[in-house]
Design goal:
single chain, 3-hydroxy-3-methylglutaryl-coenzyme A Reductase, Chain A, domain 2, Alpha-Beta Plaits, 4-stranded antiparallel beta sheet, 10 strands, globular, binds nicotinamide-adenine-dinucleotide
Amino acid sequence: MVSSRIPGLHQLDRMGRLQRLHDAGWLSDADVESLADGRALDSTRADKIIENALGVYALPFGVATNFRINARDYLIPMVIEEPSVVASASHAARIVRAAGGFAASSTGRLMVGQVQLLEVPDLEAAEREIRLHGDALIGLANDAHPAMVRRGGGARGVEVHHVLADDGEEMLVLHLLVDTRDAMGANTINTMVEAVAPAAEILSGGRACLRILSNYTDHCLAGASCTIAADLLTSGDYDGRQVVDGIVAAGRLAEADLHRAVTHNKGVMNGVDAVLIATGNDWRAIEAAAHAYASRSGRYRSMTAWRKDEAGNLVGNLELPMPVGLVGGSIGLNPGTRVAHALLGLSRAEELAQVVVAVGLAQNLGALKALVTHGIQRGHMALQARSVALLAGAPSAEVDRVAKELVKRGDITVAGARELLAGPA
Ligand code: NAD
């Protein structure tokens, strides 16, 4: 196994990093070539992907180090513009690695497609008919997408839900449960629900209105956990036991308070989204599902749970809906996505789901550890200083010098950077 513990990677220049990852066996010649040239999605291709394309919009592509998940090392590809995210994930993963790494699991890969049935004359009779003919509906769905069946996936079940609209009308909603294997499955499911809708109309006596997947994928969950001895959390003057208590207290606030919960969860999604974007996944779908899942008790709460066990260890858990794909949609179209997949070296979408959730938990740990000790600004602004120098117009060769000076002066502002660049008056 190639180690994801790569000390000093951040101190190398970009080409040095590529060389180091190549030498360690993480990147192939082609991957290095593609990243070295900054080879992005080309605009001719982009023009074929969306309507009215004008060009290509690029973002930084980096890797978080130190991740060990289910006893396997991973370098995590992250696409993100926020300066501190990669550093914080790597820092937290290093602590968890020393504690044995993350344990991750998933509950399977069943996605849901919905058919909304209106004007159903007898809801109970319609439900009975649909249930009675469930296998036939599954057959219709699978006939509409035989390729998914050949891959070992396909429709698996039918459910009937009664939904009371705000105006008091009761609707029937048919749920088709589909195993989409290594694809997110949106298009597959949409094809299937459109195929079963006419039969559902006949069985229910109603009229099919919406026929589309649900992004609330509560049959496709992934979870990650970690248990960290207090001494691994000692940070400067802060004793590890103090850090454990601080993180548990911070977690309790995020469980009980909406204002804190949203910020807490934004931090989780910093890591989740960065990996989803790098791997070409539909991050809007997972954002929507994650926040809905955080509200499943009827109140919006923190996505993670942090507790202290009897031995004084910090125990963290995160479970999220994670309908990621390794194939499908536009995943194969971006050269950066290809490198991200090569770095992860995954063969199943379920494994990617577990990696993403572990990154979300690490990201939350990194933020909470900083927040309950020296505060988030020290590390954040030190990294932000480089963006500030760039915004002030510093040429690339000057950015590190200007950023260092800004941090030293404690004045990380564009005006301060401009002053430094202008030199003595
Ligand atoms: P897709 O339409 O590309 O279908 C996946 C394809 O990959 C299928 O043809 C399947 O046969 C093939 N395939 C090859 N190997 C496979 C494997 N091992 N496992 C599974 N399939 C395999 O993609 P999709 O996943 O059906 O749809 C995803 C796209 O749909 C995304 O781009 C998403 O943004 C978009 N979308 C989302 C929504 C929504 O979230 N509400 C709605 C519509 C479309």
